[in-house]
Amino acid sequence: MKIAVIGTGYVGLVTGTCFAEVGVDVTCVDIDSKKIENLKKGVLPIYEPGLEEMVHRNFQKQRLHFSTSLQESIQGAEVVFIAVGTPPDEDGSADLKYVLAVASDIGKHMQKPLVVVTKSTVPVTTAEKVRNAVQKELDARGQKIDFYVASNPEFLKEGAAIEDFMKPDRIVVGTDRAEAEEIMKKLYKPFLLNGHPIIFMDIPSAEMTKYAANAMLATKISFMNDIANLCEIMGADVNMVRKGIGSDGRIGPKFIYPGVGYGGSCFPKDVKALVKTAKENKYNMRILNAVEEVNEAQKEVLFNKVLNHFKGDLKGKKFALWGLSFKPKTDDMREAPSLVIIEKLLKAGASVVAYDPVAMHEAERMLGKTISYSTEMYDCLKGSDALLIVTEWPEFRSPDFELISKTLNNKVLFDGRNIFDAGDMKKLGFDYYCIGVKTN
To answer: Cβ-count burial of 33 within 10 angstroms (0-12 exposed, 13-18 middle, 19+ buried)?
Structure first.
């Protein structure tokens, strides 16, 4: 089977590579010629565990190809995935210009029947806009070529995307034609052999499913952060509360860890887009408005703890920061809480030296020389007045506390991910602050 994937960002590259891994002939297309040349050399635009090796292996076996020509790449293909970006517009809505531009190009160049699949996260009714864009170009050419439109939202977790694609919880496909359903079933058959379900539904429901899933996960995070803040006021321990409610099968243990707020390319953008869609249809998403409000405030919680500890005066202070990416196992810093914390510290007159296992280059691209960077996690502690942990990378879980004590100017640690036990830190002599536990 031959397919084309338009867009070599996070979703497109993972999708194309995983299909190639099971024997599908895949061409990944991008208008960025430098990105395509780098991919041919094995240089990836993103960090994702296991992806580089898989790209290299399938490229060498000629199952995975890279091209800048959509026209050439869709010839002979049965399915074309649209996996380009849908960045938030100024009003919070998803910007569909890239999606619809690709749809138009497909209509200009297709020569045989195709299934045109939106893989990008798009609002309800986008598939109809894609259908109209393709048909408009076919009409302009005077061509009558059958094509089918489908929605196939992605549910990839950054840092575990390969596992998520190869062993999915579920595969959701929205389509309104039996022909398209059969082709998509054939394409996904290798992923169904171990019992992973494929769920067919109407197109609007598939488009809504992606937004609803991310909105629910974001809601769990903001809910737990709200509870954490109240726990701290009332003298309860949110870590105990989390265990108590997480054992309830109706709630579950996932996504109820308090912290400094969610970030990344999906949750912030998708919650805003869903709120905007509702507003356009004269409906007020009251819960999701609160989810956003809580999350934005939560990104400032750790900074406020720093400010209180130093009695409101941070001028001339230097802070070490561990973790820049919005979550572990990725270099993605979009909407990362670290950006808010750093901005607040700098505005207060402090300086920051940061370390992250993989996001340093991305941080330099976004922050430039406004902060300093350390290639070793302990080096950034030298001359620092306190340590802030912002991302829960595994290597931060069992650090050398004696070395931290000797290297910092003060034994002060702000734990934005509740990695450590407050009682243990007190025994070690640290002034220790975390989320949802009254420690001082």
So the answer is: exposed
d(CA 180, CA 234): 56
Domain of residue 306 covers: 299-433
Distance CA 213, CA 156 (A): 12
pLDDT tens per residue across span 280-339: 999 999 999 999 999 999 999 999 999 999 999 999 999 999 999 999 999 999 999 999
| Domain co-membership, 194 together with 285 | no
- Which of 240, 262, 297 is the last residue in one of the domains? 297
Helix (H, G, I), strand (E, B) or coil at 383: coil
Identify the active-site residue in 28, 231, 266, 380: 266
CA distances from 137 to 64, 141, 202 (A): 29, 6, 25
Return the structure tokens found at 183: 């082709």
Identify whether 440 is part of a domain: no
pTM: 0.91
Asked about 18 being catalytic, the answer comes back as no
Judge if 291 and 323 occupy the same domain: no
412 pLDDT tier (thresholds 50, 70, 90): very high
Write down which residue in 240, 273, 297 finishes a domain: 297
DSSP string, 68-116: S-HHHHTTT-SEEEE-----B-TTS-B--HHHHHHHHHHHHH--S-EEE
Is the Cβ–Cβ distance between 436 and 258 less than 8 Å? yes
Is position 438 within any domain?
Answer: no
CA dihedral 392, 398, 402, 408 (to 10 degrees): -10
- Structurally, how many domains does the chain consist of? 3
Whether 94 shows a pLDDT value over 80: the answer reads: no
With respect to residue 35, please indicate whether it lies within any of the assigned structural domains.
yes
Interatomic CA distance for residues 104 and 393, integer angstroms: 42
439 within a domain of the structure (yes/no): no
For residue 422, the domain's CATH number is 3.40.50.720
